[in-house]
């Protein structure tokens, strides 16, 4: 890691040219090839898949997407000449448009069924020559404009279908731009520097741009669903900014503590950069866990999201050090640069609100743990009523033409008309089956298509909407009772049945998926932190965070609390595939924060063997950057409400809630409080297991000691001291000077104050290179690198007006 970071820092122009070339090359290739996203919901060994396979054999798929034009009159009938004279010319004009294959009109000889019983609502079907993704938006807009141009007072015309939905979507990139701008504000407030603010944004945009363009190219060789790039953007922006934030924060801290920019950048990459590699790998492993669900639809999601995460890690470990080399000292604000020049390096100790909160948690762990747990349990309660399903155009906003068309069709032909079932019969007599289905509870209409190749399709329109639980019950009734009793081989298919099977399969396999990713996280943390209790605590916290975030999701999207305020349309079931995706992302993000928090605690524990101090110091030094990173992710995720996609809005709100709860309640309160209560047992690992486990260092191992810090050397422990006097140029002793010993990574090892005669003793864990910083009233602060051998080092410090000099 050190070699890579140093090479990228010194060859920054080469690295920048490589990244710009990758962006331009992928952009050119992507624009030339276009996209070929495909939603594949087929599930092996399900009834709806068997029905689909039979229909595909007997009735080859139509070449293009079929959309619907619906109109309603306030008075009279749609058959009136005044209505026909406006609608028919519009339909004929649409039929002549290039790219439109067929228009089925209710005014044709076979169109009587396309008019409602009361005669006030009718619909026509427009079949394009391409699938929805391939239909030019200009053509779709022409169809919409021509259809709605026939409107007049008392005549309402609306349109529905997949192609129509595409032109209602907000401009591509709106959600991403809002998220980036919100993140920029948070970064500027955190860093106080314009250039430092830009670094994480540039890194995230570079990773996201290459990831999305590579995903569009991959869509030509594998099935990638339309929602995949949206989810890739969501996770890519979040982790891309956060990973860069962790490294930049460590780099700035190194410079402020007296390191040169290059050494600080290399150290940051060798410490926080390693944590980023570990975190990114964990996220990818969690995402790959979706493959065990054996759902083709999720395979493309895994490809898009994992690719974006990998590129985010690559950008953070190559592009970022190159940018740090370009900026040099300008990564600090002007105020920080002036203060560094005037007063010297900062002492390495946490202060402010984070330190005070950490002390408060240490004093009252029981009350804080209880309060945090109560909050999480209350938020998790709605998850008990979660219902998986699928969203459709009935969940769109009231103002959209697709929602209006959906409601008109439901009004004129029944709520089940928007999601008919297809009972596919493979040979045999269908008369008895059709008769039985007609008399089945929950069936509104039954229509039989002419058989083809021995396959007959019976279209069944339920009395309830596609998202109703009663429709699910009808499907079960047909499969379990009606069809078996008829003695006919038949299968229930259609979009509604496919989504029901999708939700059922997801629900059945979800416990195994959760067990797999929790077990994986447990093993990774056990190896990294040499403990059984820490990973067990993390696994429990992940489950609590998941339950609470899904509780928030159910309350908003299933119960409808706040949907109008958020402007996200009508409530409905939770999209079936969302729990799998959210759990993968939540697991990965929770591991990020857990690793960042506990690695600092573990580092302190190794040096002091004092659990209370380790937890206090770890929380004080990491809570600010964790909360800042979480705030950025919340801004990015919440912005996806503006994506115009219900699944994107669900994922955004769900992940924003998960990150907020995880960072602000779990990692800042519940985890440290629990670790205080557990004491030294946090770090317990059986001796036999310790010998068998491989060593996996999240950060490079620094000097370790087996005993707590001391002011005198331990002759048998390998530790030593630096001692001497602090004097002025005229030899007068300096009392009260603060001397801080720092490791090469910038971690504070010891801090003492000189006595009345100017003497001091600083404890050193072992031989090596260290940074000794000295601060005294009325004297400028300075720092010097010192080399310590096996014997105590005598090091006198002279506080001059412009520097700290070593006399010896």
From TrEMBL:
Keywords: Cell membrane, Membrane, Transmembrane, Transmembrane helix. The keyword Cell cycle does not apply. It comes from the Bacteria. Gene3D superfamilies: Carboxypeptidase-like, regulatory domain, Multidrug efflux transporter AcrB transmembrane domain. Residues 44-367, 457-684 form the Membrane transport protein MMPL domain. InterPro entries: CarboxyPept-like_regulatory (IPR008969), MMPL_dom (IPR004869), Mycobact_MmpL (IPR050545). It is a multi-pass membrane protein. PANTHER family: MEMBRANE PROTEIN MJ1562-RELATED (PTHR33406), MEMBRANE PROTEIN SCO6666-RELATED (PTHR33406:SF11). Belongs to the resistance-nodulation-cell division (RND) (TC 2.A.6) family. MmpL subfamily. This is RND superfamily putative drug exporter. It comes from Streptomyces umbrinus.
């Amino acid at each position: 890691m050190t070699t890579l970071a140093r090479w990228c820092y010194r060859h920054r122009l080469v690295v920048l040219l490589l990244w710009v070339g990758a962006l331009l090359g992928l952009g050119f290739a992507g624009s030339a090839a276009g996209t070929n996203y495909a939603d594949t919901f087929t599930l092996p060994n399900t009834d709806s898949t068997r029905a689909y396979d039979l229909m595909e054999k007997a009735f080859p798929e139509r070449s293009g997407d079929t959309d619907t034009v619906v109109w309603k009159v306030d008075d009279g009938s749609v058959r009136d000449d005044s209505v026909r004279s406006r609608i028919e010319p519009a339909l004929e004009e649409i039929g002549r448009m290039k790219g439109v294959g067929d228009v089925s009109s209710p005014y044709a000889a076979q169109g009587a069924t396309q008019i409602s019983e009361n005669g006030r609502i009718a619909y026509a079907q427009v079949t394009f020559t391409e699938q929805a993704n391939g239909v030019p938006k200009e053509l779709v807009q022409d169809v919409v404009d021509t259809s709605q141009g026939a409107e007049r007072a008392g005549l309402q015309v609306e349109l529905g279908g997949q192609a129509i939905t595409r032109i209602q979507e907000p401009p591509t990139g709106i959600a991403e731009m809002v998220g980036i701008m919100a993140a920029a504000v948070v970064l500027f407030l955190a860093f106080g520097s314009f250039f430092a603010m830009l670094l994480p944004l540039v890194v995230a945009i570079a990773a996201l741009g290459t990831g999305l363009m590579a995903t569009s190219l991959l869509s030509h060789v594998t099935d990638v669903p339309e929602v995949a790039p949206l989810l890739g953007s969501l996770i890519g922006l979040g982790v891309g900014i956060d990973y860069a934030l962790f490294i930049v924060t460590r780099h700035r801290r190194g410079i402020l503590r007296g390191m040169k920019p290059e050494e600080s950048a290399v150290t940051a990459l060798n410490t926080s950069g390693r944590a980023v590699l570990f975190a990114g790998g964990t996220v990818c492993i969690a995402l790959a866990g979706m493959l065990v669900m054996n759902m083709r639809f999720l395979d493309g999601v895994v490809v898009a999201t994992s690719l974006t995460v990998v590129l985010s890690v690559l950008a953070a470990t190559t592009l970022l050090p190159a940018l740090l080399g370009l900026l040099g000292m300008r990564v600090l604000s002007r105020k920080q640069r002036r203060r560094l020049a005037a007063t010297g390096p900062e002492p390495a100790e946490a202060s402010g609100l984070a330190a005070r909160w950490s002390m408060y948690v240490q004093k009252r762990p029981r009350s804080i743990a209880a309060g945090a747990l109560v909050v999480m349990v209350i938020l998790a309660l709605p998850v008990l009523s979660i219902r998986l399903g699928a969203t459709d155009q009935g969940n769109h906003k009231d103002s959209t033409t697709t929602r209006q068309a959906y409601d008109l069709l439901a009004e004129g032909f029944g709520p089940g008309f928007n999601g008919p079932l297809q009972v596919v019969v493979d040979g045999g007599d269908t008369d008895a089956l059709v008769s039985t289905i007609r008399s089945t509870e929950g069936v509104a209409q039954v229509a039989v298509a002419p058989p083809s190749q021995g396959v007959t399709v019976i279209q069944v329109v339920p009395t309830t909407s596609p998202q109703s639980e009663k429709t699910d019950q009808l499907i079960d009734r047909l499969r379990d009772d009606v069809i078996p009793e008829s003695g006919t081989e038949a299968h229930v298919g259609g979009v509604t049945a496919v989504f029901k099977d999708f939700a059922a399969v997801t629900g059945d396999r979800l416990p195994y998926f959760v067990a797999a990713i929790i077990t994986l996280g447990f093993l990774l943390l056990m190896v990294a932190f040499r403990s059984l209790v820490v990973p067990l605590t993390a696994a429990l916290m992940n489950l609590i965070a998941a339950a609470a975030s899904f509780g928030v999701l159910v309350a908003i999207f299933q119960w409808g609390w706040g949907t109008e305020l958020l402007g996200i349309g009508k409530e409905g079931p939770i999209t079936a595939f969302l729990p799998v995706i959210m759990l993968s992302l939540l697991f990965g993000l929770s591991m990020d924060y857990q690793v960042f928090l506990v690695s600092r605690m573990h580092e302190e524990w190794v040096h002091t063997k004092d659990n209370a101090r380790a937890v206090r110091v770890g929380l004080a030094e990491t809570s600010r950057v964790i909360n800042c990173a979480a705030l950025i992710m919340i801004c990015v995720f919440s912005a996806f409400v503006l994506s115009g996609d219900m699944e994107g809005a669900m994922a955004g709100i769900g992940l924003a809630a998960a990150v907020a709860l995880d960072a602000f309640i779990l990692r800042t309160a519940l985890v440290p409080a629990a670790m205080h209560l557990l004491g030294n047992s946090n770090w317990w690992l059986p001796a036999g297991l310790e010998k068998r486990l491989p060593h996996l260092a999240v950060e490079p191992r620094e000097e370790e000691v087996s005993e707590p810090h001391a002011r005198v050397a331990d002759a048998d422990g390998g530790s030593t001291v630096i001692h001497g006097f602090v004097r002025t140029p005229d030899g007068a002793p300096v009392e009260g000077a603060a001397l801080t010993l720092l490791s090469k990574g910038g971690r504070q090892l010891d801090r003492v104050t000189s006595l009345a005669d100017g003497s001091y003793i600083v404890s050193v864990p072992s031989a090596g290179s260290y940074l000794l910083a000295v601060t005294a009233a009325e004297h400028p602060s300075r720092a010097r690198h010192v080399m310590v051998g096996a014997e105590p080092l005598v090091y006198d410090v002279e506080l001059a007006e412009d520097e700290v000099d070593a006399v010896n």
